[in-house]
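Hi there, hope your week has been kind to you so far. For a while now I've been wondering how a particular protein folds. I'm sending you its amino acid sequence along with the backbone structure tokens. Could you read through the record and tell me how the tokens relate to the sequence? Take your time with it, there's no hurry, and the full record follows here.
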Amino acid sequence: MPIKRFLLLFFFLTPFWTQAQINISGQIVNEEDREPLLFAQVALFEAGSENTITYTQSDENGKFTLDTKSGNYDIRVFLIGYENKKLENLAINEDKDLGQIALVSEQEELDEVVVQSSTIPMRTDVEGIVITPEQNLANVGGTLLDILRNTPSISVSDDGSISLRGSSGTNVLINGRNSSLTQNLDQIPASAIEQIKVINNPNARYDAEAEGGVINIILKKGENMGTHGGVELTYGTRNRLNTGARVNHTTAKYSVYAGYNYRDWKGQGERTTFREIYEDNEILNQTNQSNENSQNHNFNYGADYYFGKNVLSYQGVYNTGDDYENNTLYSNLSDGITDDLILQYVRRNIESESDDGYDNALIYERTFDDKNRELKISANNSYQNQYKIQNIDIFRNATEPLPENLNGQERAFTDEKRYTTVIQADYVHPINENVKLEMGLKSTFRKFDNDYQYYQFSESENDFVENTDISNHFLYKDQIHAAYFIYSRTSEKFDFTLGTRAEQTNVEGLLYNTNELNEQNYLNLFPSVQALYKLDDENSFKFTYSRRIDRPTAWRLNPFPDITDSLSVRRGNPNLQPEMIDSFELGHMVNFENASLTTNLFYRYVDGVLDYITMVEDGISYQQPENLNSGQSYGLEFIGIADITPWWNLNGSISLFQSRVDGSNLGEEFVSKGFAWNSKLTTDFKLPLDLTLQLVGDYESPEIEAQGRDFARYSMDATLLKNFLEDKLSLSVSVRDVFNTRNFGGYNQSDDFYQEFRAEWESRIALFSARYNF
């Protein structure tokens, strides 16, 4: 009897045991050419619910397998760049092969990708350039500024300021949002960046801020199903170190991610200045030698939660660090005719700076049955604090900073805080398959609080005494309230968008020392046009126009002087007005089998252009910003991408432009014009032994300013890479600025003086990097 019962129990339980052995298989392919798609995310749900049973991803042949028990299920397939696929209410009672599941490529309106090669770190579209930093080996171990230095149309000066097609006014965003963290781009590691988009002529969806356009920094987060991550280590000459790690876990219901980077960077440099004052026959020669050490920690983290047709996301960034710098300035002022010495001194400035900041954003997104309908609401708050201590020793009538020559001491404390809060809502509503409307509201609140305290040592009091004529406390606040509306229409041959953005600006600047309050309030309308004509499968033409504004920054408005060098003083101007810009672009994009070429004609007119003007008074040069009458620039740009052979590809750009600055409102000497051009080239070679060699070169010709020109700049980087363990592990060796030519310089000239500077930083460095992804 027991044996019969056991056999009977076995007979009934067998189906339940075998249910655990049921598997569902299939292959994910591209609907257009039926080619297999790897890394597609395949998730199994209970039929008609949001409860995830299991998930996997397709292999290199597009195939997948899911293990489950019998029942009714929905299957969903996700892959970036393709429309989501859903198979509903499948009755699974035994092993089932679903065969080929075809995904349809998304065709984003006005976002035509020119070339699809995964080995090329750049592509172009109707709006501008999209950069994938990880595919450019020259960025390994670097920062965001290193990426921008290798980006077409962008120039980075020695102080980290950015110009786009010759314009220094750019609006830098993080994940599409304004953030205080953009004040120090050298603290954001290259390894934390997923993508950069450069938009020369943004439409009404974007802020009208900035003459040159928008640079949008997209930080990495989790995307692939499952648990993934990576670690990396970079070590270089002068014991430079950059190390980091990242991890993400993603399911069909939620995703979480986090990354950390530590950077210990050292450098040294030298800056020389020559100035001749004609009337006084005075000649100034200065040499500033500097050593710097920077140690920074950077964290980025976030989570996404999916419920129904809703996504709730949190994105966060936190960084903290310390900078140490030692500057020694040697000054020699002499008579230009007799060569007699007028003044000689050494000024040593030892400074330390602590930085910390954060950016927090909460984002809600709603999807609809119509995939072209979208709702997104976000709120973010960011904060950046810089606290700097300067200890200055002065050695008058001396050539060396020796203790016995010390005869003056100064101290300075700078406490600078920046706050940015943004609340934004965007809605996209399709009228039909060809027409859609976009609209949105945005309010930005910014505050800049700079408290500078300056002390001089008093021998009579044997202590440091504050000099209230130099100490200053400046508070800057602004509010920008915006609304926009965009009408888009697409057809087989012709796409276009028409948009208008209204911005109400309220600015308030308070100088506590004098209780002087400066207020500005103004309303502006900013129209935009984008059009794309597709002549055939290979050729398309684009036209874009936008009206923009460049508001003076807090630093430019603060009237108090920076007297780091008592003979060369920099100060702000509280009476500055914003620039108003009209920007036009006409382009042609052509696709070949393994290459593409984008040609852009551009023209920009600036009313009330902001530029720094140098004046000499009593032997001291004062540099301050002024509003000039106007500025114009027009030019031609070529951007090419090509897979020349299976082992050789390259991408590059060349921009040529003519500029004119009219500052005749200040004097005829402030009228200047000239021609300039720049070029950047990146090329990869696949060598034997599975090695990859990448060379990156750039050249920037002299460029005009209101009173002079910048000098030409050029350099080349080289990197050798080898992958191991099915490309999970990569090792690389790189040399930045191979020929040690990356330096900066320029001159200013008027009827009264000539001034020239040259800066050489330690830019030729060697780096060894290791990266492992899992």
Summary: Confidence is low (pLDDT under 50) at residues 1-19, 107-120.
